[in-house]
Amino acid sequence: MKKLIALVLAVAMVLSLAACGGNKDNTTAAPQPGTTTEAPKPADTTPAPGTASPLAGTYQIKVWAPEAAVELTKKQINDFNSSNADGIKFEATVEAVSEADAGTNVITDVDAAADLYFFAQDQFARLVLAGALAQLGQGAGTIVKDTNDAGAVAAASVGEDLYAYPLTADNGYFMYYDKSAVNADHVGSLEDLIADCEAANKYFAMELENSAWYAISFFFGAGCVSEWTTDNDGKFIAVNDDINSDKGLIGAKGLQKLVTSKSHIESSDVGEFSKGAAIVVSGPWAYNDAKNILGDNLGAAELPSFTVDGQSYHMGNFSGYKLLGVKPTTDAARSASLHKLAQYLTSEAGQLERFQAIAWGPANKAAQDNADVKANPSLAALAAQAPYSKVQGNIPGTWWDIGKVIATDIKDAKDEAGLKAALESYNTKIQNVLKIDTTGFILVGAWNDWKNDDEAYRMEAKDGAFMFTLEVPQSDYMGGRIVVPGDWGTDRGCLIVTEGVDLLDQVGDPANGDNNIVFKEAGTYVVTYNEAANTITIVKK
Amino acid sequence: MLQPLFVRNLRKKHFASCFWIGGTMNHISDLEYLKLPKWRRALIKIAQFFISIPKAFLNLFVKIGRFFKKMGLAVGREIKDIILTFKNGDWKTRISYVIMGFGNITRGQILRGLLFLLFEGVFLFFMFKPTGGLYWMSMLPSLGKEGPGKAYDPIFDTYVTTYNDNSFQILLYGVLTIFFIIAFIVTWRMNVKQNKLAQQILDSGKPLKSGKDDLRSMVDDNFHKTLLALPLTGIIVFTVMPIVFMILVAFTNYDGTHDGYSNALFTWVGLENFNTMLGIGGSGSKVYAATFGEILLWTLVWAFFATFTNYFLGMLVAMMINKKGIQFKKGWRTILVMTIAIPQFISLLYVSKMFAQNGMVNQFLQSIGVLKGLDYIPFLEEATHARISVILINIWIGIPYLMLIATGILMNIPQDLYESAKIDGASGWKQYTKITLPYMLFITAPYLLTSFTSNMNNFNVIYLLTGGGPTNAAASTAAGSAGFTDLLITWLFKITTGAESQYYFASVIGILVFIVVAAISLIVYNLLPSVKNEEDFQ
Amino acid sequence: MKANENTSLKQHMGMKAKTRISNTVIYIILVIMSIIWLFPFVSIVLQSFRGGPVKGMTNEIIPSIWSLENYVALAKTDFFRWYLNTLIMALVVSVLQTVIVLCMSYTLSRFRFKMRKGLMRFMLILGMFPGMLTMIILYRVLKDLGLTQANAVPGLILVYVASSGMGYYVSKGFFDTIPKSLDEAARIDGATRAQVLTKIILPLAKPIVIYTILTSFMAPWGDFVFARYISFGASKGMNVAVGLFNWLSKDQINSSYTMFCAGGVIVAIPVTIIFMCLQKYYVEGVTGGAVKG
Prior knowledge:
The structure holds three protein chains of three kinds. Chain A is of the alpha+beta class. In chain A, the strands form seven sheets. In chain A, strands 1, 2, 3, 6, 16 and 17 form a six-stranded mixed sheet that branches. Chain A has a five-stranded mixed sheet with strand order 11-8-12-7-13. A five-stranded mixed sheet of chain A has the order 19-20-25-26-22, with no helix packed on it. In chain B, a hairpin with a 2-residue loop joins strand 1 and strand 2 (24-26). Helix content of chain B is 67%, strand content 3%. A two-stranded antiparallel sheet of chain B has the order 1-2. In chain B, strands 3-4 form a two-stranded antiparallel sheet. Chain B is mostly helical. Chain C is mostly helical. Chain C has a single domain (72-289), classed as MetI-like (MetI-like fold), CATH 1.10.3720.10. Chain C is 73% helix and 0% strand. Chain C has helices at residues 2-48, 69-76, 79-110, 116-126, 135-144, 152-162, 169-176, 180-188, 193-204, 206-222, 226-230, 240-246, 253-289. Classes of the chains: A alpha+beta, B mainly alpha, C mainly alpha.
């Protein structure tokens, strides 16, 4: 008959479907309705002294390290296997994944990511929010706090909690230059350097229009700050940023000098030395490549100063860190073992070994005092720059996109008003990062059984005003709060009531940590949100 | 003699319809048309094109309406037939309503019956097993109830995570389950139909086809089904299903921090993402809408130039190489064709470095004194320059393909056309405009359309040459930080892999790209002469 | 009479001169074009032979130190594993894809069945969705099948082959040009449809078969977007494009660029040779099929 083939086709589909469904249960820790996914624990969970550690066992793990560190990491894991007292054996696959890409790769699929991975600090915030970093236990946390420098600890923390192990403290930048092309006396002055480059038809390479990380240098030099604050979940709740100020204007003028120079090229690649560059602003990781190109002509120095209105400002920088992250697991023993390995890799000995093998500057305080570390030329340049640097804290991912265009705006600015407009536009954009999506305000509270349900009371925009009608039924406690969708604990969404206070028994006061508003009596209320002032008014219907 | 046959055919088809010119509706014959001066003819052509646009749209809606009407009627017919079959059927047929294939097996069509039965078994197993179809369907409205949790384990002094519902899998298997249910309904209907047919055949005293007959028909009468089975299965599973899934994602808040499993569940948000992207309603910022508009415009401009520069220059090169008296024809072609054979990521990256501020081209121009000192041409650094550069570099990639295609077609143009044109004293240019160009355009019209749409989605060239840059300051807060040469497709990619991995926006853009491409294609497709007459070519 | 002859001769001479001038112009254009078209390739080949301590990108075209060390260095990396992965993919895909495309296009060209027009329109519409969109979901499907990261090779083959039915367009156009009367004659002689395809049509369709093999063989060598998404973080499962692409990342380009060029040359060799040899069929296939659509 006719439909036979269609039938076969359908069966084929079924089988492939069934195969998918079946396979799923095996390969991933899939949700099983009805069964609790409790972490499997070793049979005997109390480690008795003298007996084998409950951690003992062989673990298959994946590690992502940058190409340069792959061999070393393999060796260090082997050393750990033979030296640890718990009988932990790791069978590790170490793959080369650049620390700059690790975040993107991990977030692609946390489940399939490596158990341990090296990453640069700028991805920390994203990774915490993506649930890709396991929090450190108390013991491990104390060790990290005690042994690493304060910036490193801050770089790996959300609030009080640590989420990663500091690996290096060398994620900052300074200036490489070609001694044969740059007058040694001019190294301290940006204007002289630019003039030298223009005179010699050489390039001054610094990423400004493509990277906020470098562009911020001028603003830090002028004394600006840019710091973000997160809550305990890693969500950003406040920013302290004064780039849109007179100080910022000074920084902008300095930046404009470089970015509008013909000698300026957008790059932080020391490879530019072989294409006519005399100066490249980059970091310690590029030292060997730069040495290969320039040989003895390679010079490394702190960033120069720029002069605005007769006053000189030393360019600043971010002092950043590289971190080692542990992926969360469901198995306590495995998790504990992985943390032990991470501790081992980031210990003083581990960091020193890494410095000796591939010249990564340690974050560990004891290792930083090592004589060899202090003698390293690129780390010495970084150390010279250190008084002018600011610790790179937690920064939201979008800031990097916002911050990099400031240089483009400054480049295009014709006059001081243009510069001010650029700073203004930057400021508006960063304030928007914190601004809550106003279409998503919701009320939660006793009047709707404390549901945090997006659909319960969603504000709607009418003529630019956000308002909705709220039914408060009679009950013992007619309280609740107005929050942004998402986390219960967040305070930032709890808004202040300016009008209709007389209808309330209690007014929410985020500053004192009491967020609930409590109605005096049941009834129907109209709640309006004022977007500009970030306040609400309540009127009884 | 200068009007070759096919051109006349073309015109006949084109101008048999009525068209509007100079304020009145005119019917004019071929002859009258040919008598008109050139400019009027061009005017008529243009007018006709625009007149048919609303018509094309109208046709589309009429067609959609008709389609739904037809569908409704068909469903009604099917249901009626199912009821009637049950009423008139014998007990074997009736049992088959519950146990699929029962009738076939009892009537001797064992193979077919067993396949039906197997299908039903697998379906029921899939639906009712734990974490089976029913579970996925029940979770679909909420996309999961419980997100992951974190707990402190004091014994090992470590944190462990518990993973619970997985929104992604719920959505994926929910969609699969729906596909499966549809497949089941279709199969069940087939089963009913077959029973009816088998009963009728037996009643009329004829023998039923055996399994052997079925197998034979697979390579003969039903050969097309055999041939299509595998490709279509592949397309359904790996193209249709993912597209349906991704369309659904546009209505959720699935992103890097709501990945549905590792950090937080995602859920349905209705049209919110479309509103944000298109700047509709709410106080949502217009930056997305502005960015989208700008990128869309550039995408269309790019696609237009990328298509037509390649087309005409490729044709020109082919004609140069084909010209009588040019030696080493094969050699020239081979040289050009190397660009096709070498993967683009190798060559284009090199080319992009060549055009950098301190790249080879600028330094060469400086060394020969065209540029003074450190002056440079911002080939890829400044918006307008960069846009022109990518179009020019794209010529470098595209000419070889077009050259090959044009070579083939040019060889097929009957040479006697040119001979007679020469006798009539037509110049080279005239030969080109009267013979070569119309022939090429007629034959390659569908190709032009497809290459226009594929240029709209030309990811490689933009990604490898500029990465979308230079940065567009105004667009920096729109997801993914779009640049001046970003096409919609590269913007989509940036959003997917960018700081926040906003998959829902990627999905929204994908849908909008589809709408634009579909609209353009539909309009142009309906106007093309050569697609309508598929049979003419055989 | 004589005068006449003279003028015509003169005209003839004039035309000849004109032809000669125009040919010279064409030659000049072609030579310039050839230089522009070949320049990047020649440079890349030259770069691959550059020795010395500087391994990054430079602006020099002719290396100052010639060396084979980049090719030697390739052996120490995973390059040949990626190469093998890609070769396997290219071979398997070219066979399976050709079979599928031919099934699809032959059917749509030769058979007239109820859903034919609808099917073609449906696939046309499907093709308008940007393929990149489905990357995320395809990754998840492959992951559930266990075919990502280190096992990406079969996974990629599966996806390439499964969606290849969509690319029936060109070869359908080609089949459309083969006269239907051939089929009918064979059918009258008692051949089944399958026999018609294998005995009569396929031999005539040699150019399009080779064209399909050629294009599907070449595709896996250049895919760095989808393949990277599927095989991320696992060198074992990478194809040659993804592997080489990683060498261009910021932290590796200055130590691996010349090696990248060497790898690129090795990739380009087989593809170029095959393409050169089969160019004739490519032209026949594409002109027979694509232009008609």
